[in-house]
Amino acid sequence: MQKPITFHIALGSNKGDKFKNLQAAVDAIYVRIGNIKLISKVYKSPALGFEGDDFLNCCLVLDSYLKPQNVLETLLQIEKDLGRTRSLKNGYEARTIDLDIIFAEDAIINTKSLQVPHPEMQKRKFVLLPLNDIASKVEHPKLDKVVSVLLDECEDNSALEPIKIWLKNPSKKYDFSKFNYIAIEGNIGAGKTSLATKMSYDFNAKLILERFADNPFLPKFYEDANRYAFTLEMSFLADRYQQISDDLSQLDLFKDFIVSDYDIFKSLIFSKITLNEDEFNLYRKLFYLMYKDIAKPELYIYLYQNTTRLQQNIKKRGRDYEQNIADDYLEKINAGYLEFLKTQKDFNVKIIDVSDRDFVENRADYLWVLREICGV
User: Fold this and answer.
1) In angstroms, rounded to a whole number, what is the distance separating the alpha carbons of residues 155 and 33?
2) Where do the domains of the chain lie, and which CATH numbers do they carry?
3) At 2, is the pLDDT very low, low, confident or very high (cuts 50, 70, 90)?
4) Positive/negative CA dihedral, 35, 39, 42, 47
5) Which residue has the higher pLDDT, 48 or 163?
6) In Å, what is the CA distance from 112 to each residue of 190, 235, 308, 371?
7) DSSP 317-343
8) d(C-alpha 206, C-alpha 328), whole Å
9) CA 68 to chain centre
10) 314 CB contacts (<8 Å, ≥6 apart)?
11) What average pLDDT does this structure show over 199-213?
12) Which of 64, 190, 286, 357 is the most buried (most CB within 10 A)?
């Protein structure tokens, strides 16, 4: 899964309820573009280049999977939705909201509609001062100077005043602080790795991903299930036990919690389907010897998708050895998980039906999933 691009966005308003305009823009950016990591203080600054009311200005750090041109187009639509009408005449004017891309990581873009880094940023104290709050050490990719130096060297003598009201970051309503360990589970192709990865980026979590791609028995199992089922399940069990034991024991002071795209109990669910009765009875004894020593997730999320959607996702990601998985095999896995989850009383279980959701491509669906998880 691709990593998001980090953007730095400048916001300004000098018409109407200026602080309310900034907050509305922040909320819209979060919903339509990406996750907001940081928001600067809000500063009052005089209008520059024309006679008008004072501005309120701020900057924010944004992670988005959209390309810079798409981010620009969405920012312009947000401006329009919040009541800004851009004039065809040259020069500055009062505006309800003004949204500009300052940086898109270290990208240098020069098209008719988009220039990044913003070509005037180093001349504008109302950009540099709030930007310095959240990105003082970020280097300008063309000028080869960090933001703090650009602020020191700026010749703009405008007097800026911080106001004592802070903008709210919409991401803060999703509270994962009460969990140390969250496991995301689901059938083959349900999207558990994608969701775990997105959550780790957005909420500063340590990410544990199952190492299935390194298992040499997996392709062989799909070719000859009877021959390789026990070997496959034993190798998965050993690897999952080792990985969970190691990763959960290594404290990361810079991460807020742990999120994984599997729970070790999946070993018992899959083995019950793939192994004959004698093999499964032996496997189950070995499993519970290991399971009693493993830390259990405080939140267990099961992503349910119907078989049709699972097959679509499997075809889309294109792993050769998965292309001939039968519908009844996927249905047995779903049934096995649901049977297991009904009996669990030791940890919090949330079953989320995402059959009609695409939380990878559609941010609204992703935010819906977060609301389902957090109950907001």
Assistant:
1) 33
2) 5-171 (3.30.70.560), 174-374 (3.40.50.300)
3) confident
4) negative
5) 163
6) 41, 56, 44, 39
7) HT-GGGTT--HHHHHHHHHHHHHHHHT
8) 35
9) 17
10) 188, 189, 322, 323, 325
11) 89
12) 190
**Distinct helix (H) and strand (E) counts, the chain:** 12, 13
Read off the amino acid at residue 83.
Answer: G
Task: Give the number of other Cβ atoms within 10 Å of residue 50's Cβ.
Answer: 10
- Return the pLDDT at 213: 60
Residue numbers annotated as active site? 261
- The Cα–Cα gap between 295 and 244 comes to 8
270-328 confidence digits (pLDDT tens): 999 999 999 999 999 999 999 888 888 999 999 999 999 999 999 998 888 788 899 99
Question: How far apart are alpha carbons 261 and 181 in whole angstroms?
Answer: 11
Whether residue 1 has pLDDT greater than 90: no
CA separation, residue 10 to residues 142, 174, 236, 376 (Å): 19, 24, 48, 29
| Cβ neighbours of residue 368 closer than 8 Å, sequence gap 6 or more | 357, 359
Place of tokens 């001939």: 324
**Kindly report the CA angle at 295 between 348 and 200, in degrees rounded to 5?**
70
Calculate Rg over the CA atoms of the chain: 25
DSSP 84-143: ----SSSS----S-EEEEEEETB--EE-SS-EES-TTGGG-HHHHHHHHHHHTTPBPTTT
Of the ranges 22-26, 248-252, 277-281, 318-322, which one carries the lowest mean pLDDT score?
248-252
> Is residue 147 within a helix (H) or strand (E), and if so which, with residue range?
helix 147-153
Indicate yes or no: pTM above 0.85. yes
Number of other residues whose CB lies within 10 A of the CB of residue 273: 15
Residue type, 64: S
Residue 89 confidence class, pLDDT cut points 50, 70, 90: low
Q: How far apart are CA 43 and CA 57, in angstroms?
A: 5
* 190-203 residue pLDDT tens: 999 999 999 999 99
The answer to whether the CB of 286 falls within 8 A of the CB of 237 is yes
Which pair of tokens denotes residue 66?
């959209």
